[in-house]
Write a structure and sequence with these properties.
Layout (H helix, E strand, L loop, with lengths): L2 H4 L14 E4 L3 E4 L8 E3 L5 E4 L3 E4 L7 H8 L2 H12 L10 H4 L9 H45 L4 E4 H4 E5 L13 E5 L15 E4 L2 H7 L6 E4 L1 E2 L7 E3 L7 E2 L3 E6 L4 H13 L2 H5 L1 E3 L2 E3 L2 H6 L1 E4 L2 H40 L10
Parallel strand pairs: 8-13
Antiparallel strand pairs: 1-4, 2-3, 2-5, 6-17, 7-14, 8-9, 10-12, 10-14, 11-16, 15-16
Helix pairs in contact: 2-5, 5-8, 5-11
């Protein structure tokens, strides 16, 4: 990326660039002290550019496709390798000098195979970019639709404003502590990392001991809403409907809302609106870099208890957009999984190796 684009038309380089390094098209440059963060780039913008002397510049041999090598050098596997060399560095600030960098070995298939892999990855990335652009548009549409639906609720004279605790049951999750890490009643539980914006990630679920009495109190049911109790200020109150099987529990970093007088999907729409508009942030208490909603403050928040037909109208409105958004989100996830699988195939030896570069 050009300096004036990255720094928004501010000149951060010296007027005297006589000591800067040339980077021709197809060459690479990396920040010696930031390589472990993936700070490496392929110069493909202009015929000749220049970079600060703090960067290391190199090119690849003719039997290596630069686009293929760039993807390898930016991969998670290579970033781990950079970290190994960075930790072994005698430089106090940590650095990966070119003498160490050039010793890192990578699998190198024949040139034609490299080009094929790079072309496939280019197309996958292009499709991901298109889908992500569409997703950003859908997020805006969803926010607008949700805002309109909440105005409809507020404007209806039949809507009754009541405390959240009157609309449903509020329960803070089970405290996690070392003594619960083993026992006769180990059960899976959800935490903040699992409850994302409108959906639950079940790919990394931990377990701890829940006694039979605790199981009865903390077991989740379909239709329960889980909210982030402790989070960064802009994410506190992030929520999702529980849609998993019986036998799942939840940690104290989450609040469970179990509906009594409202439809679960309507309540979820209200909570999403509160997240978008900063209502949860305003109700939370900031402590260093973490904000806490607390069950008590959440229970006292004023909830719009709409009549059933308005609740159904809100649900229909947001779910029409939500379904399309969910489909695009799923497509992005599938493309990313495919991309990771392709890279794993390469590093796992699925692509025949030639020589090391």
């Amino acid at each position: 990326m050009r300096s004036d684009e990255y720094f928004k038309n501010r000149q951060i380089y010296s007027d005297d660039i006589s000591g800067y390094k040339l980077v021709r098209r197809g060459w690479f440059a990396y920040a010696t002290n930031h390589l472990t963060e993936g700070s490496i780039g392929l110069q493909d913008l202009v015929e000749t550019a220049c970079v600060s002397p703090i960067y290391t510049v190199f090119s690849c041999s003719p039997e290596v496709d630069e686009n293929f090598l760039f993807r390898v050098l930016k991969s998670d596997e290579l970033i781990i390798q950079y970290g190994v060399h960075d930790q072994a560095s005698v430089d106090r600030r940590g650095a990966v000098r070119y003498g160490d960098f050039k010793k890192i070995e990578v699998l190198l298939p024949p040139l034609k195979k490299q080009q094929q892999i790079a072309e496939i990855l280019d197309e996958v990335d292009r499709q991901i970019s298109i889908a992500q652009t569409e997703l950003r548009k859908l997020v805006k549409v969803f926010r607008g639709t949700l805002g309109w639906a909440m105005e409809r609720v507020s404007g209806d004279p039949r809507t009754v404003w009541t405390a959240v605790e009157e609309a449903g049951e509020v329960t803070l999750g089970r405290q996690r502590s070392p003594e619960h890490s083993e026992g006769d009643f180990m059960r899976p539980y959800l935490r903040v990392a699992n409850v994302l914006d409108g959906y639950i990630d079940y790919s990394d679920v931990l377990s701890m001991n829940f006694t039979p009495a605790e199981q009865e109190k903390y077991e989740l049911r379909a239709g329960d809403i889980l909210l982030n109790e402790g989070q960064s200020l802009e994410l506190v109150g992030r929520s999702a409907l529980y849609d998993g099987p019986p036998g799942m529990y939840f940690q104290k970093t989450l609040i469970r809302f179990r509906t009594a007088k409202v439809m679960p999907r309507y309540a979820q729409a209200v909570f999403k609106y509160w997240l978008n508009t900063g209502v949860f942030a305003d109700a939370s208490k900031q402590a260093t870099n973490m904000a806490h909603l607390s069950a008590e403050r959440f229970e006292a928040m004023r909830f719009p208890l709409a009549v059933p037909e308005i609740q159904e109208e809100v649900i229909r409105s947001v779910e029409r957009v939500g379904e399309v958004r969910g489909h695009v989100t799923s497509e992005v996830a599938k493309l990313k999984v495919f991309r990771r699988a392709l890279m794993a195939d390469l590093f796992g030896g699925g692509v025949s190796a030639g020589r090391s570069a």
